[in-house]
């Protein structure tokens, strides 16, 4: 494993048991993702791309193999340390935005700061700044239901970045958006990759988006890597 | 997560499902209220009984008799102590010695004699007793008509209702309603009675006595018939002398007055032949103790002086035991409602987990640890406990006040003085709130750990 790799996967398997049958969601994947790289995981439904992302995020544990993120073997971490990993090392955005509906945008973005025990006085300023960066400075007190899909996804990006993680994990970030809004979100993600040097792993089934923004495309089918190519045509 | 963040989030979550959480909180408060209501009833009754017992003067009094006198109440005392002939005399010096003992409020001689009283020129034979000033606080005088003695040697008398009826020649017939004290007392208050008694006056030695006779001039006394006019100042229904039952007096004089009469006592006659005839002795001395708990200690000290004693402390012990058992049972019944309420908390929180499954998943995905989630649900249970406890204590207190009010209306209607049967002490207020929080936290234990164990991947998939 290269010490420069932000994420390193060694023969990773994740099996689920459904009654009598064993489902191999991730089946022997080995992958190295250097720091600052924008990688797209592509594949059809059930190819194991989201499962792989969950393993990197520390939301799930491998059945075998090792996942190393920022030189930390996730299998060796306790439940509490794994929560710290999700809090500090990686930021996540989801297809369905996953904002808490009873909280306004400011409170939603502030939430990870509460878990990180950041002082109350500093929190609001940080959350406000993060929301302004994604262009939502005017919607701080709005609840998610009062916003468009694109705005919700931007708020979710602001929340993912609030603790300044080095890695952004995006699970179908444009899946619920129209193409124009999707492009806006992808531009923002691309910008974080460029300006902040963040490592980005994005799951998508839209090849067009991957070709336009990702520097590397990893193809998955039945839990296995079936293709891994550099995309030189990505937007700068 | 910091404590104030957990608390803030918990309260905001409680506000989100306002109706359900309010109903659960009301459930807890009803439980706490029933606990407070039951226990404060127990405490109130206990204190009421304590007050009554204390006021009756039964439990803080030690009756002292001389061993030389008639045999005491307990034969053990005679067997263990010095022989009657060697034991001290119960006189003024002995009384003063008893008054000096630690824990003793006062020691007064028991002066009582049977004598004739003339009212309206008709003679009435009855027992007359001296009453110390401290007896003023006695329960028997709560509903008294008229007043207590103006001074300790005033020529005044307090009489029992039964004697007042006798003076007026109106003995209630069987089956007829008893007349009210006020009605009986009205024609008598301020009227005078003539008390006839035999006085023990210092006398002359018999002229035939030889110089070496045992009976000297000092020891001899004469008996003189005397009269005293006293004003009836009070009529009471309840007997302050209830401890003596049938032997109780029906007419009371101020103690100093009764003592100054030097009425011939039965013990005087007996002592004529003994060598102590020179100084007047008392047949009984009543020793009042500062608190009922000090009775055994004072009793022991008096026994050491060489006298026989009698008290009814054992009765207070069994009364206390009765209330301890009563409190226990009232507490158990009160807690039952709280136990039912705690099931309500478990139900509410488990429902909240199902409802907020996705929210828990999101929180975990963005970095919440198991302990953060657990703390949040725990705090929600605790917050319901605090609110339910406060509300419950307020509710319990209000119920208590209403019952006090109702009881007193009832008591007044039955001609009893108002009483506080319901008492909410501060320890109960604090204890009930703490207990409510504790029960709520215990109820939150299972839902909280279930929420913490939730698999975030599964929870996020849940729509």
Write up this protein:
The complex is a heterodimer of chains A (236) and B (463). Chain A is of the alpha/beta class and 236 residues long. Chain A has helices at 49-57, 79-89, 105-115, 120-133, 149-161, 179-196, 207-213; strands at residues 5-18, 21-34, 38-42, 64-69, 72-73, 90-93, 167-171, 199-204, 216-221, 224-230. In chain A, the strands form two sheets. A six-stranded mixed beta sheet of chain A has the order 6-7-8-3-9-10, with helices on both faces. Chain A has a four-stranded antiparallel beta sheet with strand order 2-1-4-5. In chain B, a hairpin with a 2-residue loop joins strand 3 and strand 4. Chain B has two domains: 3-54 and 319-461, no CATH class; 60-312, no CATH class. Chain B is α+β, with helices and mostly antiparallel strands and 463 residues long. In chain B, helix 1 crosses helix 12 (370-413), helix 2 runs antiparallel to helix 10 and helix 12 packs antiparallel against helix 13 (426-452). At the A-B interface, helix 2 and helix 3 of A face helix 1, helix 11, helix 12 and helix 14 of B.
Give the topology string of chain A: H per helix, E per strand. Answer: EEEHEEHEHHHEHEHEE
Beginning-to-end CA distance, first to last residue of chain A: 28 Å
What share of residues of chain A is helical?
Answer: 25-40%
Indicate how many domains the architecture of chain B comprises: 2
Quick recap:
The complex is a heterodimer of chains A (236) and B (463). Chain A has 236 residues and is α/β, with parallel strands linked by helices.
């Amino acid at each position: 494993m290269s010490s420069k790799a932000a994420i390193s996967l060694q023969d990773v398997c994740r099996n689920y048991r459904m009654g009598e049958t064993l489902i191999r969601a991730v089946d022997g994947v080995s992958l190295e993702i250097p720091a600052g790289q924008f990688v797209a995981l592509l594949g059809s439904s059930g190819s194991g791309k989201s499962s792989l992302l969950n393993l990197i995020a520390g939301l799930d544990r491998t059945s075998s193999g090792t996942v190393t993120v920022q030189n930390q073997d996730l299998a060796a971490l306790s439940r509490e340390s794994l929560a710290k990993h999700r809090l500090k090392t990686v930021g996540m955005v989801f297809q369905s935005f996953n904002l808490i509906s009873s909280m306004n945008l400011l409170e939603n973005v502030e939430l990870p700061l509460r878990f990180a025990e950041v002082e109350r006085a500093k929190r609001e300023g940080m959350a406000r700044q993060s929301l302004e960066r994604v262009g939502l400075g005017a919607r701080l007190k709005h609840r998610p239901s009062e916003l468009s899909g694109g705005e919700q996804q931007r708020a979710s990006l602001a929340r993912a970045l609030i603790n300044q993680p080095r890695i952004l994990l995006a699970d179908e970030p444009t899946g619920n958006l129209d193409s124009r809004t999707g492009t806006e979100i992808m531009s923002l993600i691309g910008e974080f990759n460029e300006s902040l040097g963040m490592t980005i792993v994005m799951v998508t089934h839209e090849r067009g988006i991957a070709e336009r923004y990702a520097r590397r495309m990893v193809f998955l089918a039945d839990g296995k890597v079936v293709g891994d190519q550099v995309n030189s045509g990505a937007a700068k | 997560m910091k404590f104030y963040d957990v608390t803030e989030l918990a309260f905001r979550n409680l506000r989100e499902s306002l109706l359900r959480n309010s109903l659960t909180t009301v459930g807890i408060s009803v439980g706490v209220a029933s606990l407070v209501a039951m226990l404060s009833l127990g405490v109130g009754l206990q204190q009421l009984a304590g007050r009554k017992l204390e006021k009756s003067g039964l439990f803080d009094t030690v009756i002292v008799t001389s061993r030389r006198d008639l045999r005491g109440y307990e034969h053990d005392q005679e067997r263990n102590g010095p022989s009657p002939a060697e034991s001290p005399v119960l006189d003024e010096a002995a009384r003063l010695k008893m008054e000096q003992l630690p824990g003793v409020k006062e020691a007064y001689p028991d002066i009582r004699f049977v004598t004739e009283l003339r009212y309206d020129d008709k003679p009435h034979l009855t027992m007359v007793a001296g009453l110390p000033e401290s007896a003023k606080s006695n329960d028997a005088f709560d509903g008294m008509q008229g007043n207590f003695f103006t001074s300790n040697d005033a020529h005044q008398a307090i009489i029992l209702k039964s004697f007042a009826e006798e003076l007026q020649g109106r003995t209630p017939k069987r089956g007829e309603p008893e007349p009210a004290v006020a009605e009986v007392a009205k024609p008598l208050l301020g009227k005078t009675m003539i008390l006839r008694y035999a006085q023990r006056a210092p006398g002359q030695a018999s002229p035939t006595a030889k110089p070496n006779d045992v009976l000297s001039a000092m020891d001899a006394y004469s008996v003189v018939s005397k009269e005293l006019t006293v004003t009836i100042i009070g009529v009471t229904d309840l007997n302050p002398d209830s401890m003596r039952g049938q032997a109780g007096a029906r007419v009371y004089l101020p103690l100093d007055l009764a003592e100054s009469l030097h009425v011939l006592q039965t013990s005087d006659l007996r002592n004529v032949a003994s060598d102590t005839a020179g100084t007047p002795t008392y047949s009984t001395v009543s020793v009042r103790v500062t608190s009922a708990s000090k009775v055994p200690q004072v009793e022991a000290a008096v026994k050491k002086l060489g006298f026989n004693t009698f008290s009814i402390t054992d009765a207070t012990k069994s009364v206390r035991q009765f209330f301890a058992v009563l409190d226990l049972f009232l507490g158990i019944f009160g807690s039952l409602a709280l136990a039912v309420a705690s099931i309500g908390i478990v139900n509410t929180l488990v429902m909240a987990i199902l409802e907020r499954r996705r929210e828990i998943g999101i929180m975990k995905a963005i970095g919440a640890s198991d302990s953060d989630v657990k703390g949040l649900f725990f705090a929600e249970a605790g917050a319901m406990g605090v609110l339910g406890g406060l509300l419950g204590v307020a509710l319990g207190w209000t119920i208590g006040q209403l019952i006090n009010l109702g009881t007193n209306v009832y008591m007044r209607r039955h001609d009893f003085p108002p009483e506080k049967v319901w008492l909410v002490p501060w320890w109960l207020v604090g204890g009930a709130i703490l207990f409510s929080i504790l029960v709520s936290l215990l109820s939150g234990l299972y839902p909280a750990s279930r929420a913490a164990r939730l698999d975030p991947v599964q929870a996020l998939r849940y729509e």
